[in-house]
Amino acid sequence: MRLLLYTGKGGVGKTTTAAATAALAAERGLRSLVVSADAAHSLGDVLGERLGAEPRRLGARFDALEVDARHVVDTVWGRVRAYAVDLLRHQGMDEVLAEELALLPGAEELATLVCVESWAQSGDYDLIVVDCAPTGSTLRLVTLPELMHGGLRWLLRLQRAAAHVVEPLARGLVGVPLPSPGVYAEAEELLYRTLHRLRARLLGRSTSVRLVVTPESMVIDEARRALTELCLFQLASDAVVLNRMLPEAALREDFFRAWGPAQAARRAEVERIFAPLACLEAPLQPDEVRGLEALAAHGRALFGERDPAARLGESARLRFERDAEGGRLRLPLPGVDPGALEVARVDDELVVGFEGARRKIALPTGLAKLDVSGVAYHGGELVVSFALAEAPAA
Amino acid sequence: MRVLLHTGKGGVGKTTLALASALAAARHGHRVCVLSTDPAHSLADALASPVGPNARRVTPGVWAREIRAQVELDRGWQSVQAWLRELLREEADALVAEELLAFPGIEELVALRAVREVEQTGDFDLCIVDCAPTGSTLRMLRFPDALRIFMEHFFDLERRGARLLRPLMRGFEAGRLIPREDFFDAFERLYEEIDDVRRILLDEARTSARLVVNPTRVIVDETRRSFAYLSLYGVATDAVLVNRVMPEAVGGGYFERWLALEREELAAIEASFPVPIRRVPLQPREVIGVDALEALGRDLFGDIDPAARLAEGRPIRIRRGGGRTRLEIDLPGISKEEIDVLARGHDLHLRVRDGRRTISLPDSLAGRPIERVRLQEPVLEIVFGERGEA
Hints:
heterodimer; A: alpha/beta; Rossmann fold; Immunoglobulin-like; 2 domains; 8-stranded mixed sheet; 4-stranded antiparallel sheet; B: alpha/beta; 11 helices; 15 strands; about 40% helix; about 25% strand
């Protein structure tokens, strides 16, 4: 089962590209599902059909669905949510508001992951293509399992400690309803099993992210930063799609004369920045791309003879190396300002941060017992060297 | 200080037009601070020069700053952090602040707080906010209300509870689970700050939203709903800015079909928003750097001061006439089936599609029955009857 996630700045054509990929793959024999994960769903518009939370068959081997966050979250988080709503209502809060406040942070992102995972496990599909929300939320999506792990862990600890000691007192004093043991069980299930499974799926070899860009600097800049963050969280990207390239016929228009050279420069920039990812190109079509047939045709323009589901290229991954003197961690982080990089060692984890993003990387036992002896950034890679701790100088 | 919120669907050019507006306002003598609250910041890309979490001067009258939730959390709320750290001391966890990002509303909170910070410096008379795409922006605007409800229902309770429990728990390991008094003080200060921002945002004389669109159907449809949600939350939209209008000069040829589609959408835009529409054409080159942005700002506003209120309306207003009192809200692009109205005492509960709000009714309307709800595109009218009538 192959999983493809399409992301990029808003308005670049993610939905069209994702649907075109699935349409072409279906035409070529793969059982394909395209999933819209953007709360502002536009997949239905592109396909010219109404979609729901269950897959809808729109052509041979081609299904589509739009994630319904509330429904999915209720199935994995229902009891905890119900407790939260209960608690809020107990305090005299309006039911509707209580419902809203009790929504899990990152609910939409979580719902997408859970939904994709369940269809991935169903065995009904060879390919699932996800049309993600714009870059910011996509990054939230891929980092959610880690982020939530941290947040949930201390929430659980807090609640458990509170339940054992404080709440018997608190109940007497302020009359707060207590969570049933099932609430904790469900929170733990979510924490230790579901998140783990989702993370494994995201990091698996059959999952790739594809970045969609248009030939505009602002769009390319954002995609570049997205790629760096994807690398930081160890998600593999395989291709960049350069969308809405003006064809010759369009460039002949007087108004667009200056675009020809600019577009060529952006293309060269994309190829340079995103190598070794594959760079695919799609033209701006003379009309809106709507309906399955138009999408499959758009897919053919984009992929040509290539297999749309193949791993088209490979971004470098995090590596650990050992040698006699110590070892190294190599983390590809293309296009980062080395001055903005922060690296810190906290017990057997390495904390790496730059600009808005920060991540903890668990060190393998071999490296965990060594000390950090150097940090360098070259060739788009962060290299952290480890060596045996030296005896403190007398 | 005036606040202009620039929002709209992803990729329509919010950042570009926010900066163009800022530069145009500076020509009118305003001292402008541009804040980006979109976690995927683009200010630096549009200016082609670095912008960071500290305000940075772009031109003599314009400063720019990117709000990064993590940096702000690292910086502030020390007592909250200190409490959390103490609480979790078993882990000696240095990254607690970051994990807070997993909780709802934190990013919105940080963004709102920044608006107030800009006002408090006293250095600016215009704050232009380059918002995240519409969904997150609406969440941000919804946040002060949610916080107010939390404060009204829980805060005092929690505080009282903690005061009672603290002496009892002294000496017990679990005693540190009870927040110290200064934690509550910090929280209360925070609440007051956010409530300040709420007052700024809901005052149409001070804050206006500007919706950025492109003339394509999907974008216009979504923007109509955004306008409705903004009205519902009490934020006044005073203009719609249409970006990337294909110039007539493009003519037929390859773009014939696109031009025809655009004309339809431009007509739909004029027809559906009850505020002034300003247009800027698609540029033959990417708009990057101060000079290009300044030129675009001149195109967009001409001699008009971008800081001015471009429309006088209030999103929610009370009208009297014919012996009846009506509450009116501008809700373009919403159908009657998507609206629910319920009056209960002092509260008017409103649901519009996925948006909900509880509006506090003035005394003159509290307790009166709703006589009729009527949608006269784009205005929703709620007519109240007399007390005691059924």
